[in-house]
non-reducing end alpha-L-arabinofuranosidase (Flavobacterium franklandianum), 661 residues
Amino acid sequence: MKNNLITNISLCGLLFASFLANAQKTTLEVNTVKTIAKIQPTMYGVFFEDINFAADGGLYAEMVKNRSFEFENPLMGWNQPNSDRHSFNKQSGIATTVKVLENKTNPNFLRVIIKDDKGYELINEGFRGMGIKKDAKYNISLKASNHDGAIKKINIQFIDKDKKVLGETSIVPTSNDWQNYTAQFTATQTEAKAKLKITFVGAGTIDLDMISLFPQDTWNNRKNGLRKDIVQLLYDMKPGFLRFPGGCIVEGRTLAQRYQWKKTVGDVDKRETLINRWNTEFDHKPAPDYFQTFGLGFFEYFQLAEDIGASPLPILSCGMACQFNTGELVPMDELNPYVQDALDLIEFANGSADTPWGRIRSEMGHPKPFNLKLIGVGNEQWGPEYIERYKVFEKAIKAKYPAMTIVSGAGPFPDGDYFEYGTKELKKLNAEIVDEHYYKNPKWFRDNVTRYDNYDRKGPKVFAGEYAAQSVAIASPDNKNNWECAFSEAAFMTGLERNAEVVHLTSYAPLMAHAEAWQWTPDMIWFNNLEAYGSANYQVQKIFATNKGTDLLAITKDGKTVIGQNDLFASAVKDVNSKEIIVKLVNAAAKAQEVTIDLKGNKLQSRGIVTTLTSANLDDVNSFEFPNKISPTESEIKLKGDNVSVSLPAYSVTVLKLKLN
């Protein structure tokens, strides 16, 4: 036994010696005193777009699909299996929709005629089912007009695929006129694919509308609010900004289908339903049931930004529909309403309660301004048509709100004619921040770490507004959130950080996706009806965002900037608030690297923290089964004088946090 122990110890020693012998050894220098540039509070943020069922069916916790019967097929999401429509004896009853033409925002309601209250059922399927949790409480609300008091009671139940009841309650409709009713009930077991079943006691006619169901436990316990687990993932990132509502969704396939913020504020039941522009965009994943109810509207976006400590960054239509679709243009002499929308939005966000739009914000429950500082004009439009429209917006916004910072766009690609034209023209106009997008393969991200090294420091600042490494190809349904994509993005992010003088905002895209209702991959956060997890890319974004620092420092090897030599990427910052030096290191090589960092200037405490993200296989991913497969590990590290040595595993992202004395 003793001999075996000695043999094992010797073997471990040999393996460690072999590791050290094979590891690439590098010495880096960090000047802890000299600040190269300030890191903006907005350096790392999140970009929300209602794609992949990210709003209805996702972040917005509503569980009923088509609650107000306003989809193109007014009964989509609803089923009446025992109705006259399916029954030979025509005894149970039937539901049909009625349109009230003078109601412009919510014209449809459901008229239910009950003949036999023992047989008629009305069932809502939810968003690929309804996720319910044992002992959790759920709030049901609906509007009803009970003709002549014919219906004595409305029974409401959760059921599973075998029609087993998993929780129930009831509502007694007391009025012949439209009236709101509410009730609460508790789930008796956990089920990812529950449905909502409605039955009736009595016979006659009853009209129903706005049948809505929310968990009691929402983010910040807001009634009819947001999914707590998803918002928690965002909150944990400490994002510097929240960009909303998109993305191509801002533009619409046509101008009529563009996102209009004014239709998304005020009473929820008066917000006009709109088809989602991603519903049939991709043949590989059509979603004809994808609509926007705007229960998650601009007020809720501003509120979310405030909740997670992020600066709001709304993006508005510039009068151009998506150029990948119709490319429809509003004539220049008809552009004023679009410009006015931008001015009114600033008033909605920042105006006092004495202003028309500030009053609406205040009446919605937020008397204080939202402190909007950034506004985006257009998403990723290109060409002369965009530039001439941008000029009009810029002139009007600056005339009324000179302190407002305007974000413009350089088109959908990181290079080529559209990009070159856009950046050249926007520079001539002294644009403040230009949004750049890039969806490329992982190698592109590693090869382009120096992208901003030679950008004009006096020119427009950069918003890296949409980026994600594509494991297969842009918009391929086979893309994965694998580890190679994630650490390649981390390598690129060291280049973003090293150029913080130019790069002021960055965000991965898209932000989230429903596991059964996505259109685009990869995505940073994945969720189903019960759970949510952060991908490997999320873990990279989070580790950078929570360690962004306040001051950029130089990190060099033999006097030269570290930009990927020997597959080693690095950046260094100081955080004057936490009094820390933070060094980010990415080893993109297939073998370990030994790095010694010589810290010149400030005296440091003798111990620090090293946080590591790594995985042995390039194709490794996080999943619902293993949500933390790729997640950070922490350990203590000791300094020797002004030096600290760290072993970087193959394919790894490492963050060193060293306290200043």
